Amino acid sequence: MEPVSTTSSSLTAAVPYAQMELAELVVLAQQDDMRAMEMLVKKCQKNVFLSLRQLLPERPDDIADLTQDVLLRMCRSIKSLRNINTFKYWLNRIITNRYYDEIRKKGRSLNLVSMDAGLGEDEEPRQTTRQIADDGPSPDEVTLGGELDDEIRKAILNLPEQFRIMIVLREQQGLSYEEIASLTDTSIGTVKSRLARARGKLQEALKPYLATK
Asked: Residues 177-186: what's their mean pLDDT?
């Protein structure tokens, strides 16, 4: 892909801010275009909010403030992003780092309790591990009303934190195994095995509701 190379005046004259792609907004924001920065925040805030709500479902009253903090960090460091094509990954690193900050602040460490004692951290998931297929409906895609939404949040809350973050980065953010491994400082094998366990746990918890689809 050819790198985006343009000036604020030439780009905004042709395309309204609201119709711009994220990459275009990033370029303009890096050139101190405040309207582009505002639109970038507007386009990213819902995704940031949902990600944090899933990562920290036990802290619903804090999610709005944490979202604003992530977006503020994004704005302050936007010029440090060298490759605009990696913006999504870059923003997810800010989200993930903020999540880890909260864990450390509360004096907690990632819950290392295994949900499948027979599966090593770096092993590929076995066929006996319950899974939700990648191309099937994810928790975010199943909309059977407020009751199911509550059950999804409860199921995610009950996941050990190291598995919860895998689900959020894969299902909510759509990151690749390689990107998740980099963000969480783990191997690809660990990412796959934790995702398999997490999906199995969610499937088991949501089975009564999914059966009514």
From this structure: 93
